[in-house]
Amino acid sequence: MDEGTVTTVSSNGTYSFTKPNRESITLLAGLGVEGDVHAGVTVKHRSRVAQDPTQPNLRQVHLIHAELFDEVAEAGFEVAPGDLGENVTTRGVDLLALPAGARLHLGAEAVVEITGLRNPCAQIDGFRHGLLKQVVGRDADGELVRKAGIMGIVLTGGEVRPGDPVRVELPAEPHRPLERV
Question: In terms of pTM, does the model score above 0.70?
Answer without folding.
Answer: yes
